[in-house]
């Protein structure tokens, strides 16, 4: 590797591991592994989640109101939706052939690895902005669009959508399309687009000043939850651990490369890579609980929340940052440490 390449990698790694957002997540992991009684009340955690989704949706909508909807936005949306439909097929092959999961559990887990993690995306955006390469605001819409397609693919892989499952499928689709995260993200995004920068200025102090602090506390809570679930896991084999790490690496690389090839800027290419690398642990588990009650939550929740989520936060976001910079020919931004 050239001296420039080494300096870029070192800067990206330093930026990731010195970020307060990541360090609070590490604190949560360490506290849980040490069996501390540290905890954040569920009501407060839910309030922080609502705040973060509203803030990211609003800021994304404002950004799009400034730039408008052009071919770049449509390309990013097409890439995201296509990835969400197709990635579960890749996961399903690995889960059935390598991990030897049955058809139901393989389909349920595969759906998680085609959908997205909002918290992973928000964390990545904060890191990329600190590195001097903010993603386009339209990536919020891409994130929301990637929630649902993977669930449909996962159901098809698990058992198809026959007439006997018609009512259950209808209920599941309603829950997915109108669940709290989708409604709030898209609603806040639309409000941001309508209000524009001028209208957003009235509420900007609330949604901007406290954003990073709330995100730190939220990730502290996520670290506690991820570590405690990992310690309680019983159904996870080493093969599933390999898949839970291998899929984010593969999907993230493919997503970043596709975005760079289609002309997205470095920050947006990295953001799409992170979306492809992430795994849902909110919307998809809720849908699987309704549509595939016989699937084992101990497998799909532990893989997505306790293995893939920490791996992405601690390691993979930094790797995707480096890859996006290399593929878009913009290595200088990686070292821009404020």
Structure overview:
The protein is mainly alpha-helical and 338 residues long. Helix 13 runs antiparallel to helix 14. The longest helix has 32 residues. The protein is globular, with a radius of gyration of 19 Å. The N terminus and C terminus are likely disordered.
Structure at a glance:
With 338 residues, the chain is mainly α. It has helices spanning 3-17, 20-33, 42-67, 71-97, 103-112, 118-130, 139-145, 149-158, 166-177, 180-200, 204-209, 211-232, 238-261, 266-277, 283-291, 297-328.
Provide the descriptors you would attach to this structure in a database record.
338 residues, mainly alpha, 16 helices, disordered N terminus, disordered C terminus
């Amino acid at each position: 590797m050239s001296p420039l390449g080494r300096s870029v990698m070192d800067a990206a790694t330093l930026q990731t591991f010195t970020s307060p957002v990541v360090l609070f997540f590490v604190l949560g992991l360490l506290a849980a592994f040490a069996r501390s009684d540290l905890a954040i009340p569920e009501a407060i955690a839910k309030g922080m989640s609502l705040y973060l989704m509203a803030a990211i949706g609003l800021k994304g909508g404002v950004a799009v109101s400034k730039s408008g909807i052009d071919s770049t936005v449509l390309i990013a949306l097409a890439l995201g939706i296509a990835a969400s439909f197709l990635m579960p097929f890749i996961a399903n092959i690995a889960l059935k052939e390598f991990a030897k999961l049955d058809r139901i559990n393989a389909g349920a887990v595969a759906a998680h690895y085609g959908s997205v993690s909002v918290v992973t995306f928000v964390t990545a955006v904060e890191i990329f902005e600190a590195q001097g390469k903010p993603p386009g605001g339209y990536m919020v819409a891409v994130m929301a669009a990637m929630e649902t397609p993977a669930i449909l693919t996962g159901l098809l892989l698990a058992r198809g959508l026959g007439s006997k499952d018609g009512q259950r499928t209808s209920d599941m689709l309603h829950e997915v399309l109108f669940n709290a995260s989708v409604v709030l993200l898209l609603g806040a995004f639309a409000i941001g687009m309508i209000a524009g920068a001028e209208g957003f200025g009235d509420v900007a102090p609330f949604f901007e000043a406290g954003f990073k602090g709330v995100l730190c506390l939220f990730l502290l809570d996520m670290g506690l939850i991820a570590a405690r679930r990992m310690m309680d896991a019983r159904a996870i084999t080493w093969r599933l651990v390999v898949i839970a790490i291998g899929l984010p690496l593969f999907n993230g690389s493919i997503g970043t490369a596709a975005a760079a090839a289609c002309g997205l800027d470095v920050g947006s290419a990295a953001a799409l890579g992170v979306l492809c690398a992430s795994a849902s642990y909110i919307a998809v588990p809720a849908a699987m609980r309704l549509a595939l009650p016989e699937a084992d939550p101990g497998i799909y929740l532990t893989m997505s929340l306790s293995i893939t989520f920490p791996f992405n936060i601690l390691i993979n976001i930094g790797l995707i940052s480096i890859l996006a910079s290399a593929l878009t020919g913009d290595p200088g931004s990686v070292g821009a440490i404020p």
